[in-house]
Amino acid sequence: MARRKEAPEASRLKCGAGARSHAREARVRAIFIVSGCFSLVVMALIVLFLFREGIGLFGEVRPWDFIFGKLWYPTYDPPDFGILPLITGSLLVTLVSSLIAVPLGVGAALYLAEVASPRVREWVKPAVELLASLPSVVLGFVGMVVIAPLMQEWLDLPTGLNIINASMMLALMAIPTIASISEDALYAVPRDLPEASLALGATPWETLVKVTIPGALSGISTGVILGMSRAMGETMVVLMVAGGAAQIPDLLGSFPGFLFESVRPLPATIAAEMGETPYGGTHYHALFAIGMVLFFITLGFNLLATWLSKRFQQKGAATL
Amino acid sequence: MVESPARVAAPSPPTASPQENEETVLEVRRLNFYYDGDALALSDINMKILRHRVTALIGPSGCGKSTFLRLFNRMNDLIPGTRVEGQVLFEGVDIYGSDLDPVDLRRRVGMVFQKPNPFPKSIYNNVAYGPRLLGLCDQTALDGLVERSLKQAALWNEVKDILHHSALGLSGGQQQRLCIARALANQPEVLLMDEPTSALDPIATAHIEELVGELRRDYTVVIVTHNMQQAARVSDETAFFYMGKLVEMDKTSLIFTRPRHAQTEHYITGRFG
Fold this sequence. Notes:
The structure holds 2 protein chains of 2 kinds.
Chain A lengths: L1 H13 L2 H39 L7 H6 L3 E2 L6 E2 L2 H32 L2 H15 L3 H20 L7 H25 L4 H8 L4 H30 L2 H6 L24 H8 L8 H30 L9
Helix pairs in contact in A: 2-12, 4-7, 4-9, 5-7, 6-7, 7-9, 8-9, 9-12, 11-12
Chain B lengths: L4 H5 L14 E12 L3 E12 L3 E5 L6 H5 L13 E8 L2 E2 L7 H7 E4 L10 H11 L5 H14 L3 H4 L12 H13 L5 E5 L7 H14 L4 E5 L3 H7 L2 E6 L2 E7 H6 L4 H7 L5
Parallel strand pairs in B: 3-8, 3-9, 6-7, 7-8
Antiparallel strand pairs in B: 1-2, 1-4, 4-5, 9-10
């Protein structure tokens, strides 16, 4: 007993009492600060580089003509650098993929959190998350060699590489993000709230709609926005499957028909053309400017996610 | 152990007081309750709960008193793998019979939980939650009902100017009274209270106890408590549970002065539990 009491005393003395532990604290602190700043600095440098390369374009093309120009013919003479078709392409595939992914993702989350037995949940949740680990090139490949020919044949289309095909593949990528984050949010709703609702004579469905979902809305909306922003920034799938035509589909004239038209989203444009353009040319700068646009769009999505998660946040359960 | 104590407890009416007519609201007959299919949590319980009385359920932790309370509004249904044998009659109808919807039952048998659990909504919307589920959307009627419920729960004066503020800004004791008001807004016949003061400070506890005394006039109250002074202060009848059995049940004054079982006496004198 006595020996055991002595031991820590002795070792502390040997280590030089407080001084040593202070030094270690400071070192650990420094390591964390450096690793925290590292990502910040890298991020800043990337943004700086992006803007330095992209801003050069606006000496030759007016920003208005760049954003709202309807023609993207960067290699013609004279070239056209209007990215409106690319923006609409990106927005369309993101929107259509969200229409597919949000109901399925949120539905999967509700099933996992509210309906599934613990055993089922234990198996299905990792499976859903595994879907997120599929490389996007694999999904693109599936869309290209499996879905596209089928669609072309069944619906008698000129090409199977179109908005709906790309949207379906993007939805497959967004579903795990949406489902996983939403499920965590639903699961985190304190159990005593639905219990109180049921005890007041609410049906399970009323309880879900009036108590559980509102309690998880902050997390669900974050999941939805992050899923959408993932679809927006995704490159490989749209490069392989969206068809690559820089055109604005006729939305109203051929209502559901526009789904089968090809588009060329922003990231696909950069990926396809960057390797084939001379360094420092107008086209080169235009691609970086597209990167800037994409950066602002995804930044907007993330700010929206943060805002929504604050907007719908309900302060915890009853605290004393 | 004591031979079949529940059966001893069952024929208690002979010593009934004549002042009020003794009407049974809830009656439990030969009840067994199992968790996980075969773990017996309550065995062979017989009990009558009288109208406009406060019935206290006491006993050491894990004796099954909360489980027993939750039988009356079928909250145990939410736990997978539970099983009920025997009968629980509410106004003569077996609530575990096949044709009774637990949703209807829970509107008539309200519940207040151990930890205050107001919804993260406004005070008004908390109280209006139940009536709105029943389809009450007339604003004046709803306003009146909210006011009356809050008054019954002795909370109105404190919150009448902040009805549309979040319920989560209230103190613990106020939140618990809000939960009582929320349960009362459904105009239930029976109010179940599961250790409603265990998370509260002494002043808030005194408030709630006083309230329970008043609620007796309009409601039948069943209250689980681990605090024997509380049972003695607020209840008319007391039931003592031990190891999943009803050891004895009688008028509170008799239980605390002349318990018939040694176990009861040991418990209320603080020798165990």
